[in-house]
Amino acid sequence: MGARLGRECLYVPSCRFGLYLALRHWCAPGGRILMSPVNDDVILFVVLAAGLRPVQAPLSPADGSIDVDAVPDSVWAGLSAVLTTNLYGNPDRARRLRERCDRLGVPLIEDAAHAIGSSTDGKPVGSYGEAAVFSLSKHVGAKAGGFLAVADPALRAPLEQARDALLDPARLTAELTYAVRPYAEAAVRGLRLAPAARWALRLLGLQERDGIRMPLRPVELREALTAAPSLADLHPWVRVDLHDYRIAPGRLRMRRVRRLLAGLDERLDAHRAGTERLLRTRWAPPATAGAPVQPLFRVPLLVADRDAAVAALARHRITVGYLYDPPLDTYAGTPFTDPSPSPAGAAWFARHALPVDPLRAGRVIEILTSAGAGPAEERPGG
Predict the structure, then answer these.
(1) Which domains does the chain have, with CATH numbers?
(2) Three-state SS for 356?
(3) So what's the pLDDT on residue 249?
């Protein structure tokens, strides 16, 4: 990955852990960071754990990226950093955000969890900011790990030391669970035991969301934030869906990561082919018309009735994940974040975006067509 990005890359046990590491290095506690309100709630809690105040950005309803021109000067003036999202692999306007950060003298940090293989303005996503964090659980399919890419190679050693100081020691039980998980998931799919599996995960405390967003628990969260910056005090929120996010990897885990990463180009080609097929449908985001096809992790089709489309796919055993509705400022409120100055675009996109796995493009198109799913209309601002 260092060769692909032209940057020094440091392995981390998860993308969220890598983001915390970057925020703690580049951002002083008490600072304000511009971010997207259409994002996983875990990212909001990582920002809070780093002792920072999230500031929600206005988004383009066409593709869910930060609308650079809609951010007021008063908001830009109070920032100490900008965090991109590259939602589903669609690049944010990284070049323009880089220029703005340079004028402000603040760092740009790229969340590229969904964006291995994506590029913008002729450069890979992850090569614009002071730092970028990637996930190896998405395109690579390793279900573990990530890496932190940095512009200054001299920072690798201090970041590695900071990483090691935050890691929990490797555990045999975690490695064994990781080893058997792919086979267990395959058995669940083959035997159609998904409801029973979800019940078992909830019983073990490994599935903590009943809906799209995790429970906020504002009273407990407010108390935990008195200790920020602190990963340990925010652990009940940061760990959700990934309890081993800060555990040092064992040999088995690293062996699988290396094996799967070796096949990345083939996977990217498959994602790009599926993305191209989905972008030819009537539900394709209009902003993608004429743009280079990216190997998207998920393709955000824009449908009139997202919940009905999700239900239609579920009837055919296709689960839709990576939904981020409502936006984070609606979800968390002003006690924990500054709301977007123009929230309509994010609300519209979150309500209509249907993230589709491009590797299942053909089947999804068949099901949505049969269900009579209509394209979303009446975007804010036309």
Answers:
(1) 265-371 (3.90.1150.10)
(2) strand
(3) 87
Which tens digits make up the pLDDT trace of 305-362? 999 999 999 999 999 999 999 999 999 999 999 999 999 999 999 999 999 999 999 9
- Residue pair 103/80 in contact (Cβ under 8 Å)? The answer is no
**Paired tokens of 309:** 């489309």
SS3 of 93, please?
coil
What would the two tokens of residue 204 be?
């073990």
SS3 346: helix
Q: Are 64 and 287 in contact (CB under 8 A)?
A: no
- Contact indicator for 205, 284 with CB cutoff of 8 Å: no
Taking the CB of residue 297, how many other CB atoms lie within 10 A of it? 25
- Is residue 102 within 8 A of residue 95, CB to CB? The reply is no
Which structure tokens are listed for 244?
Answer: 């081993």
Cα–Cα dist 307/331, whole Å: 18
- The helix (run of H) or strand (run of E) holding residue 110 is strand 108-111
CA distance 310 to 158: 45
* Residue 375 β-bridge partners: 303
Do 81 and 53 touch, CB atoms closer than 8 A?
no
The stretches of the chain forming alpha helices (DSSP H) are 2-5, 15-26, 41-49, 73-77, 94-104, 156-166, 172-191, 194-203, 218-224, 235-238, 251-261, 264-278, 306-314, 328-332, 344-352, 361-371
For residues 179-207, one letter each, b for 16 or more C-beta atoms within 10 angstroms of the residue's C-beta and e for the rest, the string is eeeeeeeeebeeeeeeeebeeeeeeeeee
